[in-house]
Fold these 2 entries.
Entry 1:
Amino acid sequence: MLAYIVRRILYAIPILIGVNVITFALFFAVNTPNDVARMQLGVKRVTPQAIEEWKREHGYDKPLFYNAARSGLARLTDTIFFQKSVRLFAFDFGRSDSGRDIGADIRQRMWPSLAIAVPVFIVGLLTNITMALLIVFFRATYLEVSAVVLTVVMMSISSLFYIIAGQFLIGKLMHLVPISGYSGGLSAFKFLVLPVAVGVISGIGSGTRWYRTIFLEEFGKDYVRTARAKGLSELRVLFRHVLKNGMVPILTGAVVILPLLFTGNLILESFFGIPGLGSYTIDAIQGQDFAIVRSMVFLGSVFYIVGLLLTDISYTLVDPRIRLR
Amino acid sequence: MPQGVRRARVTGAVRGAVRGYGIRVLCALLVAVALGGCGKTPWNDPYPAADARANVLYAAFSERPKHLDPARAYSANEYEFIAQIYEPPLQYQYLDRPYRLVPLSAAAMPEVTYLDAHGRALAPGAPARRIAYTVYRIRIRRGIRYQPHPCFARGPDGRPLYLDLKPGALAGIRTLSGFRHTGTRELTAADFVYEIKRLADPRLHSPIFGLMSGYIVGLKGLERRLAKVRRDDPHGYIDLSRYPLAGARVTGRYTYEITIRGKYPQFRYWLAMPFFAPVPPEADRFYAQPGMARRNITLDWYPVGTGPYMLTENNPNRRMVLSRNPNFHPETYPRHGAPGDAAQGLLKDAGRRLPFVDRVVFSLEKESIPYWNKFLQGYYDMSGISSDSFDQAVQMGAQGQARLTPAMRAKGIRLRTSVVPAIYYMGFNMLDPVVGGYDARARALRRAISIAVDEEEYIAIFRNGRGIPAQGPIPPGIFGYRSGRAGIDPYVYDWVDGHARRKPIAAARALLARAGYPGGVDRRTGEPLTLYLDVASSSGPDQQALLDWYRKQFEKLGVQLVVRSTFYNRFQDKMRKGTEQIFLWGWNADYPDPENFLFLLYGPNGKVRHGGENAANYDNPEFDRLFDRMKDMADGPERLAIIDRMVAIADRDAPWVWGFYPKEFRLYQAWDHNVKPNPMANNSLKYLRIDPDLRARLRARWNRPVLWPLLAMAGLGLLFIAPAVITYRRKEHRPPRRGPD
């Protein structure tokens, strides 16, 4: 397995370089270094000299990909792309274009993101699996039909609707929890109840439908018939046998997003005023802070690759027939 | 023991445990609900219960301030914070209108001396052409002390504790509050001079360096010298006291001089902005130490000032907290104001010591819906009004007067409106071959468009009546603005029954025909006239409707309007290159002087040729000549006459469709006192007073938990669960089906 992991890590390097190239090209297709400088220096009374000085200071005065004025390897290394990208591979994110240390910001902001994302993930997963199993249990009854219709309706509604409806009903009309905001420590609980509930509920429709499909497929297999023939109760068959055998596809979807929980939920964080990494990325895009955008995209890619690797490893844990070589 | 029996016992035990646990959780929830119900703070209170009756003002911000360094900050959302922390020499009197400068950290208004080219003093009324230099002598108040800060901390031996930190001394410190000791010292004139020198530090990229280097003697040279130093040490501490600056000199512990080139009377307004507030050199030295920037501990993040408040929590991702500066010098509420202020209760606190509020908590609210709802719940003490909430808050009368809806009045909420010293306009690129130029044809075309674009309708539809149709470049409240008949643009409006009335569209069509485009068709080519409007794209919900509205305005003349909506960067780029034809733009006043608006039409300030703020690239020699005379004059009849003449020239040439002057509507809770919007004064938090007891009572009344929907939902849940349980029991007890045999 170790050889497999090492090989996958080596595969990741060209992927990350590719992601960096694409991010870089897309960003600078829309913004020029002059735009970035202007964004940081403000709109009023900015002189061309100030822009040139800012670019020089922040390394944006070089060519983007190829420096024809230099010779040898410096033609590639003395460019904005190389200078801004190479340190990322050592996880040195450097400073944002507005001058803040990105690593320190990420370390500070990942905790609020996790405070929402982890409960939403765990509670959501448990809820969706339980609901899916129950729907399978009540298959071929009007309860299944009603539940399927309900899940289709739920997955058709925008997550924004759940947020606004949740804030309106729970926060505004019933006055049970704050409409938005965040606090550290134990007092975070009252701020997290609503966004977590909204996050879970908004995911029930699609999650339950997906898991139901998996479990229905498992339900027709021979081992289920055997388990029934042994006299096991229907619930026991479902929750002990079908669930365990349905774990491989569930893990495919679940483990891969595990590392991405760090990067936060853009909409939930924005509407509930949670100071996490999701809103950090959005702010950076709006503020044209390339240093942050590139760091967050890089981090997201790394997390995704790690997630895929963890998924592969987890297969071996739930299915002994699978071996990684 | 038979296996079946054992399993049954285990299952029973588990069921019992689950049931017991479930009962305990239910009990705990009931206790929590009961306690919550008995508590005095509402459940949805986003603030700590201990602060329920604290003297704390709650506000919101939607965007993280980029800079808090007074040499760099220039935006309104940055001034909202640093204007409470830093104290420049002057400030705007809170209540007086028109706006009036008064001393703040200065002991008196600056003494102004004019010098000729040989350094000889001139009489105060000397003509501007003879004035080579102007010297501002400023005497500061004694006894002002800085807020507590680690950069001033000293040990028992009197040596600074944190100015020469050894490597590793910052271990475990992540924020400024990680430093245990703080200190203070008295403000001196050298701190003001130090800040002026900081404007030239290339590392800081001060936005006003370009402007000020043209005025403050020696500032450009200082920047060149500092640039050389910065090449070797980009982020290190530079002891600016070793770099003399001819234009800013310390003349005593409490006095200093600023020398500027020529006569620039508007300079006094700059002295009311944080760019000229004092910064202690110790702060720069403290923050420049290795490891500080890596921890984001910088002056740009943790300001050091003498003002009524200090920033005690800076997490702009969540909240920023200003706390009362314990070292704040005595300053009192104004004893007099504008007519009518006393009747509104604005002088009840006259002579009382400032500030009134102990803490100001700014919470991040990016979305307008939660912000508005929290304001209605009493968790914010003031609020603007978004378009979504406007009808819920305000009713417009037949005469355009705004009044609160009964629901708002029932809550005791108050509405305060003010005309912002700003203008939003539609500009014509005067370099464009079709809409630009100064001949009769071009003027007629621009005037026709000026009549056709119905600003009154725009204000009614897109701004909910929050604006005044502009009649010229100078907004109300600024010297030179004229109201009534004398103030109208006679090419666009008629004076009818005591009101300005937009000329009929037929007049615009006639002008268009005179311009060579009868019915919107080019007489020479026979082709329909097509014009191009450049705008910066916005994701706002009204954007498409707005652009459609502009198209309709031009359609009234038979002119096709093509809207070119681009990213703001691209839009700015077009403006700099002059490739736009018609554009939408705006200007917020730096200071309340007509020069700050008329310079937007000053030829040498053209955007394409000179990189200035004259976005229309308007260039009229007569206008420029009058501007050169007007800008140096004191307010008076002579200056007013020149301004009238300039506005008349601009009316005739019509480089802009004048657009509108925005009006700001703000809502205040019943417990807010001393509220008077002052768009020029950014340091107005110190005047606000609140009644925390009333706030606590009203919050409790407005936010009683409503529990019956929970019970209803539980009942609904039972309705779903009951058939499921019945079906489950049926399935479990159903006998196995027989096969066909």
Entry 2:
Amino acid sequence: MAQRARPLSPFMHYRWQYTNTLSILHRITGVLLSFGFLLLVYWLAAAAAGADRYAEAVAKLSSPLAQLVLFGAAFAFCYHLLNGIRHLVFDMGHGFELQTARRSGWAVAIGALVLGFIVWLVIRGGMGGVA
Amino acid sequence: MPQFKLPENSRVQPGKTHPAPAGARDVRTFKVYRFDPDSGEKNEVDSTLTFRRSCREGICGSCAMNIDGVNTLACIKATSEIRGDVKIYPLPHMPVIKDLVPDLTNFYAQYASVKPWLQTRTPAPPDRERLQSKDDQEKIDRPSACILCACCSTSCPSYWWNSDRYLGPAALLAAYRWIIDTRDEATGERLDDLEDPFRLYRCHTIMNCAQACPKDLNPAKAIAEIKKMIAERQH
């Protein structure tokens, strides 16, 4: 009897745990960072192009939407950095106990939010303290 | 390339509902993945749900499946641990033979590829076994407890997307068990075989494997140790 081709079993329903969530977030923030650095280049290029262009750039970057994007970029940077350090520790063979890995994961997530907020404030200050 | 959707022939369709008998108490809803390889031809419904099982105490590894979103052994997973409907699928991202029975051919071949046996060059002592210290035995004690249920490998997104080239946590844990065995004399060759961008280094330390292991083993740590040994021998 001819049989139907074997289907592939479902996998996208796999439960989101701290393990796969933090991992995919590391990938996503890595990709976002490449776009975030375009913003940085834009800002620096504007600064190099003179006072008028710089004022124009700062005005554009001061919109609420741009500020949200900047916060996102700051968070992406901090998350990628902190989780990168977490993975360096993994690569040295430490922190694999499930409880430890869970704690370090939460520390990275919360730390990235806090640090990202601080970096965002610094960026705002750097742009001349736009309120 | 990561893949996020099931192929056309693998999409899950709504199935049949079997209501609880009238007057039943303590009713739980089970949602179970079904696949009948013959139904396209026979046009009849097989009333028996097909799944592997044997020991009913978590030592044979046959009944590994995806329950409530995570891979585990059905025999030691209590329904009382699950809130709401009990959703049961075969091990993720595997070819389905029937219902909850995945095709583990590739998985077993990968296990065999790490040569999971003692390799020696020196002749064995004529009058006794190859001995090792208690401490050395303890090192391989835990990794030897793997029952090859495939819960870890099939929980790993890297394995889902690269199982044709990435060995997966189960095979790598087995490799580690032989690499650190003090009686084994093929450590160098074993590390050579693993030093490959895919076979070993597709592990991105996601740690779904350690999270899923029903025997509380830690393949992620074993893989990290192998990576470390390869890095260290280069100096």
